[in-house]
Write the structure tokens for this entry.
Amino acid sequence: MLFKSRKKINLLEKFYSFIWPKSGWNRLIKYVSLRIKRLPGSPHKIALGFSFGVASAMTPFFGIHFLIGIFFAWLFRCSIVASIIGNFVGNPWTFPFIIFVNFEIGKYLFSSKNDISFNVEAVYNEFILILSSIFSVLFDGNINNFLNTFINLEFLPLIIYGSLFTCLIIGFISYFFIKNIVINYQKRKFKINLINNK
């Protein structure tokens, strides 16, 4: 096949390249920035779609970030592609930091226990518990098990409550940041087109 790599890439190499791009993060950021600038649509729609993607990446609902971002982009009739691009803010490098920040905000605003401290193992165990209780609702119809599990959780509710604030703050900042970038790019493009058409 034309342009096909001679060296076969195995699954492990693909996973590693996803976590750490061969071209480097700098080049990847430049590529993503250029991709956003060239999206069709108004600066408002592109920026709003991107901010929905970023905001959904701030939630602890791993595995459905893209669906959340796409749903809100579709609901508000803005750029779905921008939402998908914005969602890549949530990745294996940023997830631990996002969870920790959400937990600290949730603890500060909603917890009466000052001695509670962040524990990776406890958070992981709670994620597994909540997933198994969701499966029990889906397959067995056991809603009581889900409710009892959620009531007894200590870390996950704080992470969810904290994420409400990080979603709003990061989404708000990214909206104006991306809108400004797209407006400037479209203005430059318009001026270049005017000069070329003279």
About this structure: The two ends are 44 Å apart (CA to CA). The mean pLDDT is 81. The chain has nine helices and no strands.
